[in-house]
């Protein structure tokens, strides 16, 4: 996975830089998400892996599928990726672009998995606390996992906060056994 990220990073940075200069972060976010979704289709993967096709042929076939959703700079970006045999990196490029966009906008996507659904008051309180901790605007996405005994797991970027009963019991057992 690190290799894909390393290969995709320059393309994501270039797309981000262009989108920022054009004041079109939202448009490019949508464009890359669409292209990434198309690239993950089984038939498109077969197309991208076909060694008999040239970069131009891959680009033309790829663009014939999603050209309605792409503007001219987006089409040029797809052609560049095809020429460099990097179309398969589109999902990673899109994810890295979203990270750069979140940093620029000072936002953070946070996933909360809890034993019970969060009330609106709990969600607002958690959003405020996380916004203060990370010094960013937090967009909270919550889900329920009834297999948790209680508490919640919070994932914010690379940070994971395990506040579940199971997690606390594991820490207690580790402390006792040490």
UniProtKB/TrEMBL annotation:
**Keyword Transmembrane recorded:** no
Classification via Pfam families: OSCP
Molecular-function annotations in GO: proton-transporting ATP synthase activity, rotational mechanism
Report the InterPro entries cross-referenced here. Answer: ATP_synth_OSCP/delta_N_sf (IPR026015), ATPase_OSCP/d_CS (IPR020781), ATPase_OSCP/dsu (IPR000711)
Taking the first listed entry, what is the main subcellular location of this protein, grouped into a coarse class? membrane
How this chain sits in the membrane, per its record, is: Peripheral membrane protein
Localization annotation: Cell membrane; Membrane
Q: Work out whether the entry's keyword set contains Endoplasmic reticulum.
A: no
Q: Which UniProt keywords apply?
A: ATP synthesis, Cell membrane, CF(1), Hydrogen ion transport, Ion transport, Membrane, Transport
A Gene Ontology term for the protein's cellular component: plasma membrane
Cross-referenced PANTHER family: ATP SYNTHASE DELTA CHAIN
Per the entry, what this protein does is: F(1)F(0) ATP synthase produces ATP from ADP in the presence of a proton or sodium gradient. F-type ATPases consist of two structural domains, F(1) containing the extramembraneous catalytic core and F(0) containing the membrane proton channel, linked together by a central stalk and a peripheral stalk. During catalysis, ATP synthesis in the catalytic domain of F(1) is coupled via a rotary mechanism of the central stalk subunits to proton translocation. This protein is part of the stalk that links CF(0) to CF(1). It either transmits conformational changes from CF(0) to CF(1) or is implicated in proton conduction.
Family to which this protein belongs: Belongs to the ATPase delta chain family.
Q: Which HAMAP family match?
A: ATP_synth_delta_bact
What is this protein identified as? ATP synthase subunit delta
UniProt organism field = Microbulbifer rhizosphaerae
